[in-house]
Design goal:
This protein has helices spanning 2-20, 31-34, 38-46, 83-88, 91-98, 110-114, 120-137, 157-174, 204-236; strands at residues 24-29, 55-56, 76-77, 103-107, 142-147, 181-185. The chain has 243 residues and is α/β, with parallel strands linked by helices. The model is unreliable at 1-20 (pLDDT under 50). Strands 1, 2, 3, 4, 5 and 6 form a six-stranded parallel sheet that branches. The N and C termini lie close together (7 Å).
């Protein structure tokens, strides 16, 4: 009879633990993650869904006067930063220690190309280091990496396309069941002429396009991460059978 009394309690505890397993999401990148409005637009799309309670995390709260005072502005976008420098200086280590995450999006590489003309292989090597940091922080990290948007000036888009082409096989090579890497295409369909406000950062139309590309991938990542958390929570509160 003892088991009949304990099992309902276990079920309640399991449900409570699952409900309290709030997901944490970090938007990570450079100024195209920091001083823009795609984050606000993405948050607004998620708000009426079951993912409206996800906790957005990061050390910054920068944006571009998006006109929404309610959205979660926390992010890890750093204007002017290179992927190579973030990797070499181990900056993501501290950022994730302060603000651990379950899901992370990454749009990086623009400054490596525009500022310092870094070779694609060096940028990809930095990405590998950053993924290692993510997984050291959370072995089950769900990672979404963007093929980055085009520029509206100079001759940078050939190199951007080279980087974007390299991202897919790179992600496939590092993908794991525990910590999958999904690639989203922010380049195709994005105009360097009409979707940028200054040749670098998205305008309102560009923000809409970026939010729409992130959205399905992010929802999928949330679903996978939440399912894992619910399984882990249920295991923690299992009550042994007692006759």
């Amino acid at each position: 009879m003892l088991c009949n009394k304990l099992l309902p309690v276990a079920m309640l505890l399991g449900a409570s633990a699952a409900q309290n397993a709030t997901l944490r999401y970090m938007p990570f990148g450079d100024s195209i993650t920091e001083i823009i409005c795609w984050r606000a637009k993405l948050w607004e799309k998620l708000k009426p869904t079951e993912w409206g309670s996800v906790d957005w995390v990061g050390s910054g709260r920068g944006e571009n006067n998006c006109g929404d005072s309610t959205y979660d502005r926390d992010n890890e976008g750093h204007s002017g930063f290179l992927a190579i420098d973030i990797a070499n200086r181990k900056q993501l280590v501290g950022w994730l220690q302060t603000n651990p995450a379950d899901v992370i999006t990454m749009h990086l590489g623009t400054n490596d190309i525009v500022q310092q003309n870094k070779p694609t292989n060096d940028i990809i090597a930095a990405f590998t280091t950053l993924v290692g940091v993510m997984r050291d922080s959370n072995p089950n990290m769900k990672i979404i990496v963007a093929q980055i948007i085009p520029m509206g000036f100079g001759n940078y888009n050939t190199q951007i396309q080279n980087l974007n082409s390299a991202i897919v096989p790179w992600a496939q090579g590092l993908n794991t069941t525990e910590s999958p890497i999904w690639v989203v295409d922010q380049y195709t369909g994005f105009s360097g002429t009409t979707d940028l406000r200054d040749g670098v950062h998205p305008n309102a139309a560009g923000d809409d396009k970026m939010a729409n590309v992130w959205y399905p991938a992010l929802v999928n990542a949330f679903q996978v991460a939440q399912a894992e958390k619910q399984v882990a929570a249920a295991k923690q509160v299992e009550v042994p059978f007692t006759a």
